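Hi all, posting the design record for the shared folder.

TITLE: backbone redesign
STEP: 1 of 1
STRUCTURE INPUT:
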């Protein structure tokens, strides 16, 4: 009879311990089903695209209507003065976007009050954290303001973005195509071959 009582007590103890572990397991299972690991609980959609606005100045309200994401800009026409004004326009209309640009466009006019730039200038418009990439390009290429690289922080990963604006004058000419190809090859080397993670090249290839 004593042996039987011991068996019953031992069985009850085992069932109690099993029950406690089962409750813990179910609690953890429910918790993990409600938590998304490695990303925000509601990251939402994100667009990646490119625009040619034929000049960004006075268009902050228009571009601010673009969906969230990463937008390459070809032909911003922004000089240093134009860039300051455009960023003020973004701030004034409470835009979600910031503009990360390469070298400024050269002025159309040599007059002191000139703000408008030539038909060049590239950059990245995004509402996500970003920084300009360091690239080892010839100074002449930088001054042309036709290529730029930016890293954008997307869902805890740095995505490398190259923006390109091809040569528009006589675009079908062999020499023009060669110049565009040389420019594109430098962007490809920086973004594709010398970088890791997600990478994209966009632009107006003419």
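Okay, here is what came back for every position:
SEQUENCE:
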């Amino acid at each position: 009879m004593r042996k039987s009582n011991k068996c019953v007590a031992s069985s009850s103890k085992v069932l109690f311990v099993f029950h406690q572990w089962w409750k813990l397991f179910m609690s953890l299972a429910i918790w993990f089903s409600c938590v998304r690991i490695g990303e925000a609980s509601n990251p939402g959609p994100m667009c990646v695209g490119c625009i040619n606005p034929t000049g960004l100045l006075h268009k902050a309200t228009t571009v601010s209507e673009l969906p969230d994401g990463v937008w390459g800009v070809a032909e911003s026409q922004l000089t240093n003065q134009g860039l300051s004004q455009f960023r003020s326009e973004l701030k004034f209309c409470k835009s979600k976007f910031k503009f990360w640009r390469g070298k400024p466009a050269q002025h159309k006019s040599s007059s002191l009050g000139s703000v408008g730039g030539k038909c060049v200038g590239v950059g990245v418009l995004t509402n996500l954290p970003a920084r300009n990439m360091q690239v080892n390009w010839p100074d002449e290429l930088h001054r042309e303001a036709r290529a730029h690289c930016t890293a954008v922080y997307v869902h805890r990963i740095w995505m490398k973005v190259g923006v390109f604006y091809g040569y528009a004058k006589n675009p079908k000419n062999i020499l023009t195509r060669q110049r565009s190809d040389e420019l594109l090859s430098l962007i490809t080397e920086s973004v594709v071959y010398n970088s890791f993670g997600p990478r994209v090249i966009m632009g107006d290839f003419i």
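COMMENT: The first strand starts at residue 47 and ends at 51.
Let me know if anyone wants the other runs.
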